[in-house]
Amino acid sequence: MITDQKIAQAFSDLRTTCGGTKEDYFGLLYLEQEHKIVRGVAVNQVAFGGHDYGFDGFHFDDERRNLYLYQFKYTASHAQFTGSLQRLIDDGMERIFSAPTKDDAKNQVLLQLRTCLLNNKRIIEQVLFRFVFTGDPEQAERSPVLNKLREDLENKKYYLDQFFGEREVGFVVEFRSSTGRVGLPREPRPVAQFDIPQAGDLLEVAGPTSQRMHIGFVRLADLYSMYSVLGPRFFDSNIRYGLGEGEAVNRAISNALRKILVDGTEEPSVFTFDHNGITLYAERFDIGDGQFTLVEPRLLNGAQTVTTVAEFINKKNKGNAKLKNGKHGLESVRVLCKIITDADQKFVTQVTINNNRQNPVEPWNLHANDLIQLQMQEKFADDLHIFYERQENAFDQLSPEDLEEYGVTEDAKAIQMLKLTQTFLLTDGFISRLSEMRKVFEDENIYNQVFRSARLKADSRHILLCYKIQFQLRRYAEEIQQKGQSKYWFISRSRHLLWALLCQGVLNHEMLEKIAERHGSAMAVAVDFKETLMWLATARVRLLLSELMKDKEYQDKVAAENLSFLRTDKAFEKCMELAYKKWRWTHKKLGGIPLSANA
Asked: How many CB atoms lie within 10 A of CB 102?
């Protein structure tokens, strides 16, 4: 059993020779305990501080022929592995298996590992990445963030394949507790590899650093095949899913396919001339005899094309003999394709953004794959079993089985990014920013303030209570107006202020915990929660708004029916000052203290 006392003692004994921090010695003790090795050996297999490429320990078991690579975190929080996994994906795999000398500042454990790899290259049968902490491995297994990063790491298996040559070597990623508990066993997902017939010569373009881009033509049949195999994972790097036939571009694609594949009234080449083309990212790109191979491709631009093709084949023309026997097969229809390789995630994200301009792209769409958005998705799935729709139109295109994989059981509605942003702004008291939502997502400082890491520590039930208020705002406004048509004539123009004050009413309610327990875990708005909100609207918020309209600072504006002040932060602050005097309400925020409104 590894204890604080044992870690402190090891740190005291070795810090003058090994250095590092006290937490580094957790890994040392784990290696000694797990692999029954003496300290003199273990100290050469653990990193003590220094340049971390996402792993900080290793051990080779020559009897089992297993190479273990470790990342140690002396914490119960599986979220601490996020940064380590990202470093391993971005640089670590390449440094370990391909280019260990690329960085002159490499740590000593990397050199030791490289020697071990070279000495045992012919007998290693399996490489196991183990992420060890003091918490629950099953929680780590269920984390959407870690699951996404785990898949990204598994996609880097081609580095192993290159190092070991034609010999197949196993590749396993697992989470473990220092107490001996392990996560649910999971077979490594096979690397998705697609052989694409080459139509003509390919043009290669070098990127600003090591990136490469190949330009050529691919068949719609190959894109459809990739989507059929990968499913939603094919869109992992995209900012949204297909938008459906409500969009003109999708209807145009569907009509073109009908003319070519069913009616036979147009030649397949017409589609190639009319289509803008698509963009893919692949972990690896190889050119062979008359074909090229893509390893773990992801669609960066072209979701409308792929989803429309799938809809056309699987739903609109399922069982259609004309489609099956048509003289123009799907294999004959080609589109221009750009294939990006050898690029890090930041570069891929930028390419994705700049390639998604055909359909209008809102600023919030461009943040769909931010780490904080993935963490918000995990938070709501873990805490409430509700889906957070960070990618536009994703919820409608996920099956019940897909949602179950995300840990979602509430399948009536999803929490939407834009509405959640508004909820955060209103509870922070930044009423004015709701009129400039694009700026919220375009200004990095404002965006980082709204989606600050402290949001992840907020009670998800409280967030949902405030989020759901929007669904019945019109009813509450109408009920306030019924208290005096002439007195509350302004209420329809104070929607955001009403929402913000109702949030504070709920968060300051003496029965908040009971309300959260009953109504904070489902998207439905129950009758008794509506009644609570109605009482807050008519018995509390109505009085605050009435007093606000009498404020000396606003009398001239009210007389001129200039009600723009109702959309200001100052109006909210004045109402909260009144609420404190009347009922001792304080300004409650959903996760940490925000910066100033001018940040």
From this structure: 10
**Residue 86, domain member (yes or no):** yes
Q: Are residues 450 and 527 in the same domain?
A: yes
φ and ψ at 428, to 5 degrees?
-75, -15
Q: 154 lies in a domain?
A: yes
CA-CA distance, 401 to 382, in Å (whole number)?
17
Contact 225, 234 (CB under 8 A): no
Residue 383 lies in a domain: yes
Q: Of the candidates 122, 126, 110, 10, which has an alpha carbon nearest to the alpha carbon of residue 61?
A: 126
- For 337-351, the DSSP string reads EEEEES--HHHHHHH
pLDDT of residue 192: 87
Question: According to the model, what pLDDT value does residue 594 have?
Answer: 61
DSSP string for 146-174: HHHHHHHHHGGGHHHHHHHTTS--EEEEE
Distance of CA 430 to the CA centre of its chain: 25
Together in a domain, 448 and 495: yes
- Are 587 and 504 a contacting pair, CB within 8 Å? yes
Helices (H), 527-587: 527-536, 542-550, 555-559, 569-583
Report which of 302, 305, 297, 309 is spatially closest to residue 279, judged by C-alpha positions: 302
Same domain for 235 and 343, yes or no, is yes
590 contacts 510 by C-beta, under 8 angstroms: no
Q: Do residues 494 and 558 both lie within one domain?
A: yes
Per-10-residue mean pLDDT of the chain, 599 residues long, equals 91 90 92 93 86 84 94 92 90 83 64 91 94 92 85 85 86 91 73 86 88 92 92 75 58 86 87 89 89 91 88 81 64 91 81 66 81 91 91 78 73 89 97 93 92 95 97 93 86 94 97 96 94 96 94 90 94 96 96 59
| Domain extent for 442 | 371-583
User: Using DSSP, how many helices (H) and how many strands (E) does the chain show?
Assistant: 28, 14
- Short-list 23, 169, 252, CA closest to 15: 23
Q: H helices within 386-511, ranges in order? A: 400-405, 417-428, 437-442, 444-450, 460-468, 473-482, 495-507
Strand partners, 68: 59, 128
pLDDT the model gives residue 322: 72
Looking at the structure of the chain, the number of domains it has is: 3
| Three-class HEC string of 32-77 | HHHHCCCHHHHHHHECCCCCCCCCCEEEEECCCCEEEEEEECCCCC
Inter-CA distances, 30 with 4, 63, 401, Å: 13, 19, 38
d(CA 28, CA 20): 12
Q: Is residue 204 part of a domain?
A: yes
Longest pairwise C-alpha distance within the chain:
88
d(CA 317, CA 324): 9
Pairing of strands 410-416, 386-389: parallel
What span, in angstroms and rounded, lies between the C-alpha atoms of 287 and 414? 43
Give the separation between CA 257 and CA 270, rounded to whole angstroms: 10
Q: For residue 122, give the 3-state DSSP assignment.
A: coil
- The count of other CB atoms within 10 Å of the CB of residue 21 is 12
